[in-house]
Each structure stands twice: as C-alpha cells, then as structure tokens.
Amino acid sequence: MPSNSPLIEPKASSSIGYTLYYGTFVHTPTLEELEICFNTLVGVTSDGEIDYIHKNYKPEEHDYMTAVHRNRNRHFDFIDYSQDPTKFFVPGFIDTHIHASQFPNVGIGLDCPLLDWLNDYTFPLENQFTDSNEKKLQFAKNVYSKVINKTLTSGTTCASYFTTIDPQTTNLFAELLLEHGQRGFVGKVCMDHNDTYHDYEESFEDCVHSMNSIINHLDKLNPSDDTLVKPIITPRFAPVCSRKMLNWLGKLSKTHSLPIQTHISENTKEIELVRDMFPDCEDYATVYDKHNLLSSSTILAHAIHLTKKERKMISKKECSISHCPTSNTFISSGEAPVKQYLYQDKINVSLGTDVSGGFDSSILAVIKHSILVSHHLAMKTGRQGDKLSIIDALYMATQGGAKAIGMPDVLGSFEVGKKFDVQLIDLSSKDSIVDTFEWQLPLEEEANQRKKSKQMQDLLGKWIFSGDDRNCVKVWCNGRLVVNKMHYQRDDRWVMVEKDF
Ligand SMILES: O=c1[nH]c(=O)c2nc[nH]c2[nH]1
Ligand SMILES: [Zn+2]
C-alpha cells in the first residue's frame, strides 16, 4: 500500500460478507431520468453484486432478513445512513478520458494551443517514463500512485486511462490500479510517427511487441473471479500514427475484442494537419473508419468541431464521445455542442477529465464545467436548447460512461445484477464547504414526496456547484470499501471512523 494514500482502505480490511445499505440513493438510469429513492435498502453480495433493492423500505413494516436469508448468509453488515438528510449514495463516477502520465502537469500550460502544448509540455513529461529501467519505474510509481489516489478519493470508481509509449511502466500502472482497488482501462499510447518531437516516438515493431506484452501481462493480473483492469487500444491521434500502425491496431482490437480510445477534432489546426496528412480521406472520422477503428467500443475524446457527416458516421457506428470541457476551456479548444450530440444525433456522450489538458482530476468538477460551458455555448448560439441540465451531466458522468466503456449492464446505476461501484456523498462532512439550511433538507417526517424530491434536487445543485471531493466520504468498488474518509463528531472534535459503523 503506497504510504502517500492514507485514505485508501487496505485490501485486507475490505468487507467480504453480505451487506445491506440503507438510505437515499440517487441515480440517472436513462438519459433525462433522475430517480431519487428515499429509504431504500440495497443488498450486496460478497462478490460486490447488487442482488436486492427495496425502495421505500420501512423497518416497522418489512423484514430485511428475507434478503439476507435468500442468500443463506448468516453474517451480514447493515449500514444505515437513512437518518441524515445530507448523506446520499450515487453511482461511482466513470472518467472516460484521462492521461495518468500527465498528472504532474496539472495546472501548467494555460491557453497554449494543442499542438504547441503537446510539444512544450506533454511530450517532454511523457518521455520521462521511457528513462532507464530503475529511474522510470520509480518515477512512474510516484506519479501513478498519486493520480489513482486522487481520482479514487474524488469518487471515480472506473477510468479509461492513457499512459505513455512505455510498456513496463504501463504494466506497473495496471498493478497499481488493482492494488488501490480502482477499475480501469489501461491504454499504452501508440505513436510511431511523431514528426515534431522525434525524441518521443516508437517504431512500429516496438509498438507491436509492447502491446503484446501488455495484453499478456494484464490477462494474468486480474483476480480469477473478476476483470478489474483491461487493456484498451490507444492510437494517440491520427497525426502521430502511420497508416500501417492504425491498420494493425484496428485488427488487434478485433482479434482480442478490445475497446479503442483516441482523440478527434479537438483543435482547428489539428484538423488541418490531419487533412494534409490524409488527403485521400474526406474528414478526420474517415481516417479512423478507413482503418477499422470506429465501432461501438470506441471512445472518441473531445469531438468539438465535427462536421454533420462525421456526426452521422459516429452515430451510425455507435461510437461514444468523451466530452472534456475543463480541458477544452483550459487550452482554448472550443465548446462541443453536447446537447445536440445527445438528443439530435443520438450519440452516447460521457465525461472525461483529460488530465492534464484538464486541470481538475475530479469528475464532479467536470460535471460543473460541462454545464457552464454549455451555457456559454447557448449564449453564443442563442439556442436555449444547447444548455445541459444537472440530469444530463450526471447521466454522462455515470450511465453514459458505463455505456462508453462497454459496461452498461454492469455499472452506472443502481440495478439488481449490477456491481456496487458507489460513492457516499456527505454535504456536512468535515471540512465541507457546502452550506445547507434546515429548511432545505428533505426530512424523514416530510409527508409531501414531491416537496422532498424537489429538496433533494436542490441539494444535488449544492453538491455539484459548491461541493468537491471533501463531500465524497466513502467509495466502494466492486462492493469493496476502497476509500473511507468518514468522521464523526465527539466532544466537539472530529474523529475518524475506523469502521463502517
Ligand atoms: O488533450 C489532448 N491531450 C493529449 O495528450 C493529446 N494527444 C493528442 N491529442 C491530445 N489532446
Ligand atoms: Zn487527451
């Protein structure tokens, strides 16, 4: 266990029995649908699977032991947050675009446009992961432990990561994910044609060798009963990949049934470059399509400046877009018309922090930024319909993310058969900067359910716009408690809770 992550629960202390969670559960099972379930009992098996949901559970009327007995479990935990209206469960966040290797550059490179930003800040940093063996492993362990700790303690239970071109440190990254208990897709960056920064590129043959080594290593790494880390095919973006490499990666995805992630149409200069380099392709999306890289398991990051034809193709191929508004603002790339993608083009859209183009590794922050950027877009276009709602953004951060990573029936919402990848939000946590007033709280005794639901929706607004990772007090991944920042007040002092209750 890395010593710099005191908030991460060590594996040994994870709960292994049957667990019943009781309290308020909030989720967006489908686009446009927000479900707020008060007094809900959720049963989770020792494998981390939700096998029982009882909405509106009344202890005086119902017997929770039926759930326990159904599983022939004599030992179980009962975790009750129903008495505190400032606490609620939400699905763990799914970050569908993040560069783990770029974490040290967070906050650096403001307003440097993409291609300069890559050469001046990003390639030199990523190149440090290709140093001599001992040096690079130490460097990688430090950076990768920190980024996993940071995202996990901010409520990200699963992420689709980019690492670097280096295979050894990429394998180390996958091991660290498992050690911390975060679900993850691990993408070794593939790039054999870096014309502007030759120090940081690989040969086609090296790429083939590295990808095979990573696929084999990750195959052996997962626990026997579950796949928590998985490789993802990652051509960095068209300008740094030869046609031979793009072709091979398309085939590799098919032969190993592996998902694909890449960048598309982030910056106008980048689009011009692609046009010059691939004159036989009508547009950027066609470059990927020609090399068999567009399918329902492809995540396309940014997708800000797509043409109508590209949108149609992306929709038809059922690719997902990872919207990264924090990054798009920080390096001035533009405003993606996300509402149109979701509702008119019927494209699945998820959210990405895009560290370090994005300066915040918390998806909660990206939810906030996605809404603000959409308001700016609406002011520019004069179309109110361009504005994203809280429900849209929460959906993209959870169920939309689950769809993007090919796990719509496993993650993203509370449903029997899904995995318990969950965060507990506490608006009155120690150090919380959220202010709530008594009349704003959905109290147990409130009989008017509509009023109670409206109060809960207002609390979601408070969480998203004035909260942060300090309000994410517990995180479970695959049913296992992996983060516990829970404190309680004793004699006017905040004391860390050792156990769940
Ligand atoms: O935001 C981005 N970050 C990157 O590292 C990158 N590489 C290509 N295109 C990119 N865009
Ligand atoms: Zn990126």
UniProtKB/TrEMBL annotation:
It comes from the Eukaryota. GO terms for molecular function: guanine deaminase activity; zinc ion binding. GO terms for biological process: guanine catabolic process. Transmembrane segments: none annotated. One of its GO terms (cellular component) is cytosol. Its cofactor is Zn(2+). Pathway: Purine metabolism; guanine degradation; xanthine from guanine: step 1/1. Belongs to the metallo-dependent hydrolases superfamily. ATZ/TRZ family. This is Probable guanine deaminase. It comes from Scheffersomyces stipitis (strain ATCC 58785 / CBS 6054 / NBRC 10063 / NRRL Y-11545). The gene is GAH1.
